[in-house]
Every structure is written in structure tokens, then in C-alpha cells.
Description:
By secondary structure, the chain is an alpha/beta fold. It has 18 helices and 13 strands.
Amino acid sequence: MNRQVDKLKKMNILYIVHNYNNFQKDPIEEAAQYFNKVYVLVRYKPFSNIADKIPLKSLKKFGRNYILDLEGLPSNVEVIKTAVWYFPYGFLNRYLGDLHLYSVKRVLRKKKIKFDLIHSHFIWSSGYVGMKLKEEYSVPLVITGHGYDVYKLPFKSKYWEKKIKEILDSADGIITGSKTNKRCLEKLGIDISKVSVINNGFKPSLFYPKDKRILREKMGLSDSQKICVSIGNLERVKGHDVLIKAIGILKKKGQDISCYIVGTGSRLNYLKELASRCGVKDNIYFLGVKPHSEICDYINISDIFVLPSRNEGAPVVLLEALACGKPVVSSNVGNVNDILGARDCGYIVDSENPNELADAIEKSLNKNWDTKGIVEYAKRFSWENSVKEILRIYIGVIKNE
């Protein structure tokens, strides 16, 4: 293994990604120490320049500061924006792959970038770009399928089933974050021997237990208040409507709970109206987008973390919450059962059942959790451990080549 790692250190790797933050940034920077040079080509909409200047919370997730997190960048990592003007809606999404490819190839030519290995994060459109570059440059390709691109997009139509299968068939190695995702890939008829299930991870330097009382005091919050926190884009798939209904159920039972939601999205106004209808507008706090470096503080002010999603692949925020020593109440999606089911660190509920979610939140708030045990359990999911498994994939595809 050591001899093979030494071989990697003489190589350059090219990453094709959609954003450069948390679950794409962290493993890339962890892997960077094993390569000579790391090029990261980040797809972005030039619209993000406008989004940074317009003071609307709903636009923050499109902003350049959200897409690119260059803090602590290793010296051998070069992050390059690849501008793509696109509207990924309906049939227009079919053209995104070629638009993305054109932008990437233009950057490769302009900067005269040389690389020995490609790793694409997300099957569409980064995986498509990786497939085309592999054909042209004859280098190995690894693709990571994360969530929507695995469990939903391939099954939307015959067109997408064929397109996604073509991309994955071209890959030398395929990584995904859950057994559930792997079963979706099996349905597509992919050569399953190429597929590796590798957990996402968290960054221990960013996520760890902090003094809840001190943090609450800084934020002007009561030390005795019961608080749950949820983090995710305000879109239907994230299930915040179910969470709000659950808080409403608990309030009717006489429970005084505050719920802090970090994130923004198209359903912000709808969720605010729902909170009013459920009688919990004073219990639900929409905090908007926060820098990844601040997320740890918001998790640590909580008594429990709630993940009410209708669908997920391998949610990194679940691991980050456990790393902070917080019990998690989550819907049964993605790899949640694999993580929470292996230890007493939370409850798993149905994704569409606010009553069940309310019961689990109430039980969690009343339970005496083994915080130190949760933190110790979470350590196995660090990016350091996950990247060791990813390196084995890299070594394998290079060896086969």
C-alpha cells in the first residue's frame, strides 16, 4: 500500500465538482496530501455574482461565497471556477452536460492542465464531463454518486436511465454513500463490482462538542430552553413542513420547544406561513444560510438534532451532529439506519408522519444520552478514515489502467 501511495504522490488529479464546500471540499483537501497537484474545477452560474449583491436570503445559496469555500486551502490545491450559463429545469437539463463540458475543456486548454486521474462528484453533469474527458485523455475515471443523481434522476424517464447508465458504465470506479444508493445502481444494471459504498465524513477540526451554556449565552438564549436544530435547504425533499407540524403537535401538548432551521430555499415563505397556521411562528426560527465554519456552534446550542428529510443519500450533517455529541431524530432515508441503527444515538421515524416525529423529539428531549459515547462513535466517520477507502479506489483504477 505504501509503495502505491508513493506512486500517487507523483501524480496530478482532476476533480470535477458542482460546489467547493463541505462534503466536496473536505475529502478533496484530505486526499490532497497524497498527490503532487490537485486541480478542482467548480461548476458555477455567473448569476452567482449577482446573487452576492442582492440582499435576499433566498438567493444566498446561489452566491459565490456559498459555492466556494477557500478557507484553509492546501498549497497544492488549485480551485478554478468553470462558468456555465444554464437553467436546469425540465428538458433544458439535458443540455447542461455539454455546456459544462465546453467550459471545462476551455479551462483545461487555457491553463494547460495535465492530469493522471479524474474524479467527478455527482453523476450529472460532472460525471458526464468526466466520461468525455476520459475518452479524450485516456485516463482513469472515478465517479461519486451522492443523492438525487442516484435515487431519482435515473428513474425520471427512459432518457435519463440510458444517459446515467452510459456515464456509470464508462467509470473505472464508482463510489456512493449508502447501501440504499447501491441498490438503486443495481436496478440500472451497473457492473456492481465497480461500486464501493464509502461513508461520507466530517472534519474533526470543525465539528466537536462545545459548551452549550456558553454558546447560548453569547447568542442571548436561555440555558433552560429546549432547542432542536435542523440544517438543510428549504425545499420539499428536506421535510421541514413535517418538522413544523411536529413542533405544533408538541406545543398543543404543552411542550415549549424552540426550533432553529439553518438554510434557505424556495419554500421559505410557505414554511413561515405554515408555522403561523400551526401556531408556532414564535417557536420556529429561520436563520438563513450560515458559513460551514459556523455550523458547529448552531448544532452545539441544541439539545437534539432533527433530520426530517423525505429522501437523502448519505447526509453529512448527520455525522457532524453526532461528532458534536448530539442525539439525532431522523427519518429513515439513505444511510441513516446504517448509522443510527448501529448505536443508541437517536431515533428513526417515518418521513411523512409528524405525530411519530413529535413523539421521537419528546422522547429524545427527556432521555439522558451518553454524549461521550456518541462522540466516540462518531470518530469512525471522519474524512480521514473515508479518504483512506477512497485512496484504495484510486490505486485500484490506476493499477488496472
